[in-house]
């Protein structure tokens, strides 16, 4: 069976760096930080008091009140991002066979705010079981994919992938593979997360996963810096339209680039710590490269997982050196989490957008917030510190790794 | 309008996002006010909370209009 080619034909985003793709990309290239004190709840008693929030978000700007009430913010972000991507691609046209359009979304947690609110209500009411009928359909992480299908009548495959911070890369990978196999022509894919709430910040704080640099939020996300002390929580929704190449060509769609690989592996090592030598990370890049027999030397840019945690950043650089050998020093590497914070389930989607637009515009967004070299990180690697770098990017790879030891990588190529 | 009727109306306007003028005595939650089955369950729960009453499921099934809700509450509210 001949495998189909897969291309990207639409993008959409609501993020800490802007509520459109253009705004996000402009800020990524300019090296802007999205971090600021938390406004969503009173964080006075929390170890971490800042995050990368979507700015000035008001659900009434996007949904009527009745609709908004039934949507957790993670699903709101999903619908907003998907609408932009659908419009960008033009797949909401009457000529499109909606049975051939699927939705694979990535949300690692789902409606954590909704869950907390309901449990708080339960406790407050002397544990009398009075739960809102929308509790479950607001909270479950698959509901974003469901809402997108209902909005447009897309009746192709429909589900959510859950692999923590690798979720949306797994979603993109699944969409890529189903199109390759000829099962479906088009997918709305991507991811969203909205966990900047008491349970989200408090929970990640207890794991000592978050930066506590409360006196300087904008410089807190500092991947590969010696002083890094954890990730900065982000939120938002980012969507990509993946489409079978001939289908896109036949309808004269705008094509951003081709998807040429998706790898998925596990560390099988620890709940939250990465494999110390980056074994799973190494394997996942090799797996993604193998889909199209892409040679490591063909890769120009890696958007790393690089969350700014002490151990994760080291393991990932070791894995890159293993996979790419001497070519590792020719790569541009950057962690856009230094600017966006960590969008958890949406990380893979926002970082895929960084790869895709790096290919389109020939510019690699930077890793901001570099102050002091870490002797455990090879300084000969080009981490694109401080400022974006011009580079003709033909092939770009995005890595994401999730708690639980889930690894997923995806590769994009200029067309 | 009775106090109960105006409180019922306020809940319906809030939960269903409809205009006050649409919430007539005869208006059906599902046919006229756009409620689905989950919306209706939520409305009943809100009435229970607001008026501190328990509406058993077999009674709730008979509450299909604004007027049904008002009369049920008028008869059963403490």
Automatic annotation (TrEMBL), chain B:
Tell me the route in metabolism or biology where this protein functions.
Lipid metabolism; fatty acid biosynthesis
Q: Where in the cell is it found?
A: Cytoplasm
Q: List GO terms (cellular component aspect).
A: cytosol; membrane
Cite the Pfam families for this sequence: PP-binding
Q: What is its main location?
A: cytoplasm
Q: How is it modified after translation?
A: 4'-phosphopantetheine is transferred from CoA to a specific serine of apo-ACP by acpS. 4'-phosphopantetheine is transferred from CoA to a specific serine of apo-ACP by AcpS. This modification is essential for activity because fatty acids are bound in thioester linkage to the sulfhydryl of the prosthetic group.
Mind telling me which InterPro entries this protein's record contains?
Answer: ACP (IPR003231), ACP-like_sf (IPR036736), PP-bd_ACP (IPR009081), Ppantetheine_attach_site (IPR006162)
- Which branch of life, at top level? Bacteria
Keyword tags: Cytoplasm, Fatty acid biosynthesis, Fatty acid metabolism, Lipid biosynthesis, Lipid metabolism, Phosphopantetheine, Phosphoprotein
Q: Recorded GO terms, molecular function? A: acyl binding; acyl carrier activity
Output the PANTHER family linked to this UniProt entry. ACYL CARRIER PROTEIN, CARRIER DOMAIN-CONTAINING PROTEIN
The entry sums up its family as follows: Belongs to the acyl carrier protein (ACP) family.
What this protein is called in its record is Acyl carrier protein
- Per the UniProt record, the source organism is Saccharicrinis carchari
